[in-house]
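Email to the structure team, subject: Glyoxalase/bleomycin resistance/dioxygenase family protein model.

Hi all, the expression group asked for a predicted structure before they design truncation constructs. Nothing fancy, just the tokens so they can compare against earlier work. One-line instruction: predict Glyoxalase/bleomycin resistance/dioxygenase family protein, return tokens.
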Amino acid sequence: MTTPDQFASVRYLVDDVQAAIDFYTTHLGFTLRSHPAPAFADVTRGPLRLLLSGPATSGARATPSDLGVGGNRIHLIVDDLDTETHRLSSAGLAFSSAVVSGPGGRQILLADPTGNLIELFEPAR
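Reply from the structure team: attached below.
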């Protein structure tokens, strides 16, 4: 088990590792941590370590092909959802949902180049 001061890691299977690196570092404030092979990289944002695994990695090969896509996504908190959606739209990115409001705040979904979901969430004030 990891200790609380270590990264929490999430693995995303991606079609193109370099495109994923570019997407996360350019648009969502991640920092490239390592890129030891063309088929793998990891990027970080705060305590989140996102493992970007291309088709040739062991992480991708271990996934059963009949495993359906769930509603899983990483959840990034933003201060101002309207500003973020405008910034990302201006950069040419398209959203996978409309803004949804609820008692806890507002959110919108964005997909990376492979289709993995990112939830941008603005907590209720």
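The radius of gyration is 15 Å. DSSP finds three helices and eight strands in the chain. Ping us if the truncation boundaries need rechecking.
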